[in-house]
Write a structure and sequence with these properties.
This is Phosphate transporter. The chain is mainly α. Helix content is about 75%, strand content about 0%. The protein is built from 15 helices and no strands.
């Protein structure tokens, strides 16, 4: 096995790792409101979402085509062959560095419970790496504008308006229904709408990783450049479906908590309206080949459900923090992608390209492990995902978890001081 093949295999594994993080980062898009209202138990919800994400990944390849043709320019649009100034090794490093940017941003925002866009993290990483390697000509700006930027701004606004109108209408129609009966009825409806969102998430987000793997195979000559006509090998579709399904089942509890408890104290009629709005928009965008951010759509829908319910409280401070994260996702992931490419190339010029790629892979593993470790220090899981939201801090970590950590830290310091005093006395 030559160096290019080794890097290709490692890149595919990294792409599936991104798909996995996409799954647990975005579980909340489908299930946060159903968990918050009690329509589904937390573990049941993530299991259902995982299965439906897996199924949804098999339904379409339109978004995968967009990723291979409308983001970065490494192949001739007519022949599908690599551009003359792009070698297979260089092309793989660009994609590899882009994936690293996407994964690290996903994990960072997950750590803080911020529902940012996995799609934009991926595209930002790829754009940054392509700019570092090729320059402005390495990015298909028209495709980015039409398929990514415009939907990024339009989708949450449309979703919010639809959800607000739907929520207002639902409460208007059921205003004479006893609240308890209304809540119970809409919880059953939420199971259906949440399932539809999970299915639509699989049709949209899993395809982005399929597109990345296809782009890598096109770069090495293992796949035709025209994915729309030739289709994708079954193993790509199946592996991406399994990866996003497993990631979804793991449950990104921190993001689920923010969406379900941090934005709006949501009731089941609001949840149903938000989920129905999200599903309709995501499915229609997938059919059109738009690499839409399902996170933006779901968040817009949840905010809309808060606006549409008379007297509902919307935590605009939390929403503002999320919007800020959305705005910096593309450039932040792009910077990481560019730095990763430059580091790999710098090391590769001194040694071999494979060594450079292995170095950035090792950094990815190390930083990912650190963020996972940090999350375990203040753990959010199925047992506390529905704990009351602390408005004084707007922290995703429940107050009792933070207090327990503070007490443990204080006890540790007291014990350390006592040991030090005993040592001094003995001297």
């Amino acid at each position: 096995m030559d160096a290019t093949m080794i890097i290709l295999v490692l890149l595919i594994a990294t792409a599936l790792a991104f798909d996995f993080t996409n799954g647990f980062h975005d579980t909340g898009n489908a299930m946060a409101t159903s968990i918050a209202t009690g329509a589904l138990k937390p573990k049941t919800a993530v299991l259902l979402a995982g299965v439906l994400n897996l199924v949804g990944a098999f339904l379409s390849v339109e978004v995968a085509v967009t990723v291979t043709t409308s983001v970065i320019k490494v192949q001739d649009s007519k022949t599908g062959h690599l551009l003359p100034n792009i070698t297979p090794s260089m092309g793989l490093t660009i994609i590899f560095a882009g994936l690293i940017g996407g994964i690290l941003w996903n994990l960072l925002t997950w750590l803080f419970g911020i529902p940012s866009s996995s799609s934009h993290a991926l595209f930002g990483g790829l754009i940054g790496a392509a700019l570092a390697a090729i320059g402005l000509s390495g990015v298909k700006w028209d495709g980015i504008l039409q398929k990514v930027i415009i939907p990024a701004f339009a989708a949450p606004l449309i979703a919010g308006l639809v959800a607000a109108a739907g929520t207002w209408l639902v409460y208007r129609i059921t205003r004479n229904v006893v609240k308890k009966r209304r809540e119970e009825g809409f919880r059953w409806g939420q199971i259906a709408t949440a399932s539809l969102v999970a299915l639509s998430h699989g049709t949209n987000d899993a395809q982005k990783t399929m597109g990345v793997i296809a782009l890598a195979l096109i770069t090495t000559g293992h796949l035709s450049g025209n994915v729309k006509e030739t289709g994708l090998p079954f193993w790509i579709i199946a592996s991406c479906a399994i990866a996003i399904g497993l990631g979804t089942y793991l449950g990104g509890w921190r993001v689920i908590r923010t969406l379900g408890k941090g934005l709006v104290e949501i009731e089941s009629p609001q949840g149903l309206a938000a989920e129905a709005s999200s599903a309709a928009i995501i499915l229609s965008s997938s059919a059109a080949g738009m690499a839409l951010s399902t996170t933006h759509v779901a968040t817009g829908s949840i905010l809309g459900s808060g606006v549409g319910k008379p007297g509902a409280e919307v935590r605009w401070a939390v929403a503002g923090r999320m919007v800020l994260a959305w705005l910096v996702t593309l450039p932040a992931a792009g910077i990481v992608g560019a730095l990763s490419y430059w580091l790999s190339k710098g090391v590769g010029d001194l040694t071999t390209p494979m060594v450079g790629d292995l170095i950035i892979f090792a950094l990815l593993v190390g930083l990912s492990g650190y963020m996972w470790w940090r999350a375990q220090q203040e753990k959010v899981d199925s047992s506390n995902v529905n704990a009351d939201w602390d408005d004084s801090t707007n922290s995703v970590v429940p107050a009792d978890v933070r207090e327990a950590k503070t007490e443990a830290s204080g006890e540790s310091k007291d014990a350390s001081k006592k040991d030090s005093a005993n040592d001094t006395a003995s001297v």
